[in-house]
Design brief:
This protein has 111 residues and is of the alpha+beta class. The chain is built from four helices and three strands, in the order αβββααα. Helix 3 packs across helix 4.
Length: 111
């Protein structure tokens, strides 16, 4: 996994209010415990001991990795990405949501 591809799709204000737990203000992603994480040239290698798989997390994903603490909402992660990657907020929000979807599919997020 190399992080989210640049995307431009975002939820409208109306959809964000009704989107439930995945809405940017309410979803607070947390990483699954037990994975081994090693830095590699500004990126991260994440080893999942349960599956034996390793994932490469790109620079933008690496900047977000430590922010996935279960306390910060998706909107805060998007703000972090606007700062570190110098992206417009709407683009950063879409990228964060895509990245979190990839982590979820890989089983790297806590339930």
């Amino acid at each position: 996994m190399t992080g989210p591809p640049p995307t431009s799709g975002t939820r409208s204000r109306r959809q964000s209010k009704t989107a439930g737990p995945s809405a940017p203000q309410t979803r607070r992603p947390a990483l699954r415990a037990g994975d081994r994480v090693e830095p590699l040239d500004g990126e991260l290698v994440v080893y999942d001991p349960d599956s034996g798989r390793a994932y490469l997390i790109n620079r933008n994903g690496a900047a977000l990795w430590g922010c996935c603490d279960g306390l910060r909402p998706v909107s805060a992660l998007a703000l972090e990405l606007t700062r570190t990657a110098e992206l417009p907020y709407e683009t950063a929000l879409a990228d964060v949501e895509a990245f979190l979807d990839q982590l979820e599919r890989a089983g790297l997020l806590a339930p």
